[in-house]
Amino acid sequence: MAVWLDRLASGKEAGVSTVWLNFYVYVRIPLGILLSLIQGIPAGFLAYPLQPSVVVFTLAFAVFDICLAIFLLIGLHRRRLWGWKLNWFVLVLEVFVRPIGKMDDAVVYFTIVTGLALVWFLPNAIYFKKRRHLFS
Known about the structure:
By secondary structure, the chain is mostly helical. 76% of the residues lie in helices and 3% in strands. It is built from five helices and two strands. It has helices at 2-10, 19-46, 52-77, 81-96, 106-130; strands at 12-13, 16-17. The protein has a two-stranded antiparallel ribbon. A hairpin with a 2-residue loop joins strand 1 and strand 2. The longest helix is centred in the N-terminal third of the chain and has 28 residues, at 19-46. The chain is globular, with a radius of gyration of 17 Å.
């Protein structure tokens, strides 16, 4: 436990700033797991009167999301190359899959995806590409 506290407090590794990386790993991902638990699991059961298959899909997606976030947290915490690569997969999923539930039509979906790509994916892609050397 002391390792992640030291990393969170230091903000520098191998000569580069890791403030965003530390926030991303130790705050953002755990909050994402908590949010998935709070939103995903109850949403599945609330959908039950509408259609039982929606419950199965919603719960399966919530479990997948939580497991993926846990693996990502472990990989990035341990500074493993597979965690760095998994992060790229998660970033792409966040841009293309998360907006699916919020789309009314194709124009709205592509607008949201474009916005997420510019505001979320691009800055993170630049940041994580520059910090590839931190992962082995």
